[in-house]
């Protein structure tokens, strides 16, 4: 095994990141391709294959783990992913397997992140936890008794689409009030427009053209009152929601993963404060809010490769 690797692939609406990972979680090769440049999934598969073949890496691969939006672990299909060019049902795992002649498994990106945390990250000591991915949307990977929960059809753990505000913000899924419209990086930016009329005219944040979540945290650090209010509002929404979600699986920890979580421990502390304020007494002071330890460590590739290593280990 020391000379063999899992090929980890993370397919996003903007970029596809892939790399070779060894059993210790070290990324040997990592590259990125712009997903929209490939009109057909076979084009992307061929590009990855040709690159690894030129580097004489194909024979070293034990298998392929793929993380993708709307990835169904049971079928190996991407099903109706709204942010990809490839519409409908795409049998992606089988397509990779046919090209590489290696076992291939597919899961959604949040489950891949949970696998990465279990093998290489901040959940090595946990059997019961939930990863919460805070990116363009909000995803979750639910782990109970050391096993990912997939559900009947492979789509368990869509915490981002639990509606938390009745008739709230319109979500990309077509419904209103979903958590990801408030607690994702894009949701955080939507809060700027929604709350700006209530706040200070001299806010630096309001003068930034097309602000990002990173801008919000940067300005809050500099003392911008409005930016701090946006962060507080986001943490309150997320913490309160996690207090409700704890009733489902009673995890030992929620692990925050993604752009917003990378802002530093202060955000996790705020989420923890609002979690405790809203949790049932039987859960109070018993559930941790951790941040991922995979930030800056090729997390997308690690998480996808971890799915394959997990299959091998089991």
For this structure, what is the CATH class of the largest domain?
Answer: Alpha Beta
Tally the helices.
10
User: Strand-residue fraction?
Assistant: 15-25%
Count of separate structural domains: 2
Helix content: 25-40%
Compact description:
With about 325 residues, the chain is an alpha/beta fold. It has ten helices and 13 strands.
Describe the structure.
The protein is α/β, with parallel strands linked by helices. The chain folds into two domains: 5-115 and 297-313, ATPase, nucleotide binding domain (Nucleotidyltransferase, domain 5, 2-Layer Sandwich), CATH 3.30.420.40; 125-291, ATPase, nucleotide binding domain (Nucleotidyltransferase, domain 5), CATH 3.30.420. It contains ten helices and 13 strands. The chain has helices spanning 41-54, 92-100, 109-120, 180-183, 185-195, 204-207, 213-221, 225-249, 265-278, 299-313; strands at residues 5-11, 15-21, 27-34, 61-67, 71-72, 77-79, 89-90, 104-107, 129-134, 138-144, 147-148, 253-257, 288-291. Strands 3-2-1-4-8 form a five-stranded mixed β-sheet, with helices on both faces. Strands 11-10-9-12-13 form a five-stranded mixed β-sheet. Strands 5-6-7 form a three-stranded antiparallel β-sheet. Strand 5 and strand 6 (77-79) form a beta hairpin. Helix 8 (225-249) crosses helix 9 (265-278). The longest helix has 25 residues, at 225-249. The protein is globular and about 60 Å long. 43% of the residues are buried. The mean pLDDT is 91.
């Amino acid at each position: 095994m020391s000379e063999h690797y899992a090929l980890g692939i993370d397919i996003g609406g903007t970029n596809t990141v892939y790399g070779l990972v060894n059993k210790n979680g070290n990324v040997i090769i990592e590259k990125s391709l712009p997903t929209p440049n490939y009109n057909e999934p076979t084009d992307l598969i061929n590009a990855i294959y040709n690159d690894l073949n030129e580097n004489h890496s194909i024979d070293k691969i034990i298998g392929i783990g793929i993380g993708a939006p709307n990835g169904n672990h049971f079928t190996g299909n991407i099903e109706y992913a709204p942010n990809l060019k490839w519409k409908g049902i795409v049998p992606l795992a089988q397509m990779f397997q046919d090209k590489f002649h290696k076992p291939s498994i597919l899961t959604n990106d949040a489950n891949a992140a949970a696998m990465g945390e279990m093998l290489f990250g901040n959940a090595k000591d946990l059997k019961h936890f939930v990863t919460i991915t805070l990116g363009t949307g909000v995803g979750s990977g639910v782990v109970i008794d050391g096993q990912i929960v997939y559900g009947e059809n492979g789509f368990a753990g869509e915490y981002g689409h639990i509606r938390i505000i009745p008739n709230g913000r319109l979500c990309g899924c077509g419904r209103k009030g979903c958590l990801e419209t408030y607690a994702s990086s894009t949701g955080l930016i939507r809060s700027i427009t929604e709350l700006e009329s209530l706040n200070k005219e001299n806010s630096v944040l309001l003068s930034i053209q097309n602000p990002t979540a990173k801008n919000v945290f940067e300005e809050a650090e500099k003392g911008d009152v409005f930016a701090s209010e946006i962060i507080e509002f986001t943490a309150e929404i997320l913490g309160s929601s996690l207090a409700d979600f704890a009733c489902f699986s009673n995890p030992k920890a929620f692990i925050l993963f993604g752009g917003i979580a990378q802002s530093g421990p202060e955000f996790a502390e705020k989420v923890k404060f609002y979690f405790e304020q809203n949790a049932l007494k039987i859960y109070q002071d018993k559930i941790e809010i951790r941040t991922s330890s995979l930030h800056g460590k090729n997390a997308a590739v690690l998480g996808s490769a971890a799915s394959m290593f997990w299959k091998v280990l089991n």
